[in-house]
Amino acid sequence: MRNETIAIHAGYEPEATTHAVAVPIYQTAAYAFDSADHGAALFNLEAEGYRYSRIANPTSAVLEKRIAELEGGVGALAVATGQAALHFAFVNVADHGGNIVSVPQLYGTTHTLLSHILPRQGITGRFAESDEPDAVAKLIDENTRAVFAETIGNPAGNVCDIEALAKIAHAHGVPLIVDNTVATPILLKPFDYGADIAVHSLTKFLGGHGTTLGGAIVDSGNFPWAKHADRFPGYNKPDASYHGLVYAERFGRTAYIERARSIYQRTMGSVLSPFNAFLLIQGIETVALRMERHCENARKVAEFLRKDSRVAWVNYTGFPDSPYYSLVQKYLDGNASSLFTFGIKGGMEAGKNFYDALKLITRLVNIGDAKSLACHPASTTHRQMSAEQQRVAGVLPETIRLSIGIEHSADIIEDIDQALEKACPSARLQAAE
């Protein structure tokens, strides 16, 4: 099936009791067992079924199946937020220690997770000088447990060379984990280019309406955990908490996602509520249509900004002179993201004046909403980073991040125009003269 059909139908058939067409909300904490032996089989991971909603829930299961099918994976795990998904994704490969090698262009909280939080748990984040594959390769050593990248950086907008990063990771015997939040599987399916694990903040484009927090990890099923037993003992040695179960042997291609659910979701409990799963399913039904409009509107806004004398620069990968233009053609079929940045003449002060003057475009730190959104990353999402770390991540003091929504493009541009007028009135006068 194609994306549009998968987004509406995958993972659910009308259930047998009521024949409900919409996915039911199974608002329950626990599930009855047929017998003591049935309960024991569920807890021993010997039988499929539900035991407790901290571990799995039927509504969330539909969401997981739908996301997995959209990405072309063998399984998914839905959790409470995108950050929880990233945390589980990293520790599920590095809970015996080691390092994660990452490109530097990251969402601010993800950078904090790798640079400050995980090191307290014995996992080191290493940041390459750039997103070039050679820069990443320099940092990989015998203690590396994964390579990480955002397929489209937030807010830098850079497009990573997934195929090249995957080849480097696999040559060193480690998986490539990617955050595919900004691209979504509608624009890019990273497993087609060798990525092993995909992570999503479902809060963003997949949910699409700014109402619901959620995250997901998707397993391609392609990384050979048994082949790299010394580097990944958690998959190849008996797990004492499950009576000696060996994940690579028991689950084969789904070992990664089953281990994430059985160890981290079960014991750390970052649970997505059934109601939130239901809302996210509703959002996913329209994601293919929304992404078309997001990208179309963003192109029109970027073109307007580039021609405007009040704007100093526009970082939009859909322009032929962008260093990422060729990667947009290869990985995104020419569809540059609706997330991009720009700077106004007059620096940070003019940028703040522009930001404060917006009327239609909402000032907040979310992205991927049906509504157009704006953010000043240096003072919000990337505030905890040093000035140099911000620069490497693609954030300058004057940077404005736009997440272009699905309103009429003329209305979006009119709002930007009036905000520019208030921020840089002298520039318009000079242009007129």
Question: Can you describe what's shown?
Answer:
The protein is of the alpha/beta class. The protein has two domains: about 5-285, Aspartate Aminotransferase, domain 2, CATH 3.40.640; about 290-430, Aspartate Aminotransferase, domain 1 (Alpha-Beta Complex), CATH 3.90.1150. The chain contains 18 helices and twelve strands. It has helices at about 5-10, 35-45, 60-70, 80-95, 110-115, 135, 160-170, 185, 235, 245-250, 255-270, 275-285, 285-305, 325-330, 345-355, 385-390, 410-425, 425-430; strands at about 75-80, 100, 125, 145-150, 175-180, 195-200, 215-220, 310-315, 340-345, 360-365, 375, 400-405. The strands form two sheets. It has a seven-stranded mixed sheet with strand order 1-7-6-5-4-2-3, sandwiched between helices. It has a five-stranded mixed sheet with strand order 8-9-12-11-10. The longest helix is centred in the C-terminal third of the chain and has 21 residues, at about 285-305. It is globular.
